[in-house]
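hiii, so i know i said id send this last week but things got crazy w the move. better late than never?? heres the sequnce for the chain we talked about at the cafe, plus the structure i predicted for it. fair warning i was half asleep when i ran it
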Amino acid sequence: MQIDKDHIVNLTIFELTEVITPEEKIELQAAIESNAEWKALYDKVKADLTTEELDAKRKQLQDDFPYFFAASQKKLRISKTAKVIGIATSAAAAAVLLAVVLIPGTHPTQTNLGELAQYKGSNDIELKIGSAPVINLSKQQGTIQAGNVVMNNQNSQLSLKATGNAGIATLTVPNGKEYMLQLPDGSSVQLNAATTLQFPLTFKGNAREINIDGEAYISVKKDAAKPFFVNLPHGKVEVLGTEFNINTYNAQEDKVAVVNGSIKVRSASDSSLVKPGYEATVGTGSPLQIDEFDPYDVLSWRKGEYPFTDASLKSVAVLIERYYGIHVKFEGETTSQKFTGVISRKTPINNFLTGLKLTGFVKEYSFDKEGVLHLK
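okay and structure toks below
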């Protein structure tokens, strides 16, 4: 992986607290021996942290929660016997968060997502077909008949078959949920939280066309006679058969990352062919940009992990709302620190929040009777 200041600081703290792995030890030594800047940073971290501070923090976290805070943004290692670290130092500047919760906790006061959803009222996955009543896919399971459309809704996956002119459908996935849809042509769409998909219930004519706002992973079934188009807020994607990820969460730009095959991305004034391993970024008034992408950063949401790098606390709060389905309110001023870490949907929200508290990035947190999360 690429070496940066955050990574050097994290490895140094792991070394000082004696939880560094042999591989990380080799990596750290190689870095500080080959780069004077990394060596100076390594020495500063060691000078700024006393043994008493490290021992006290390590013991506090070890007694409270069975966390493991990963040393790396990209590489997540899990160990049942690993000691716990939650220290950010002045030497780390303002971009270090050693608070990636990877091991589910067993603290008796933790709240699981199912209990919390019942407490605050759940947001449901909904399908709207034309002017017909909304179909609640979170509650209606099995075979569903809606006019001339027959659907099978099982285990957060929907397949459907329509006859005649069935019209346009809109699938809405709220915060805290994911969903899988098989399109009429056999292509599949995995939708992330806070995503809307609009699609025809039958693909007629010489093209297949859908609209997406949010994030989705699309696997397109090849059909040379019917190219596949995806309309985005700021652009358009054309493909014959491939796999790619679309992200339009940022209101200013759309991102399309290609995993297999190739696609053509169009903006208002430009177009470009995008090959596997590359991501296109298109925004209003900005030129089309093509860059390599990190598969972990872009695709890990499909496994329930949501990494973030150099994010503000308010940005992290947006992620909490999106992936846990919990509304967040701030009380008082927020820290100017930048955060690097991972939100895991498999980990109870209280574990993640306690990590933020123990590392000093929030003073307190609480849930009110409506299920709203308050951060101080």
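btw Residues 246 and 256 are 5 Å apart (CA to CA). thought thatd interest u
miss u guys!!
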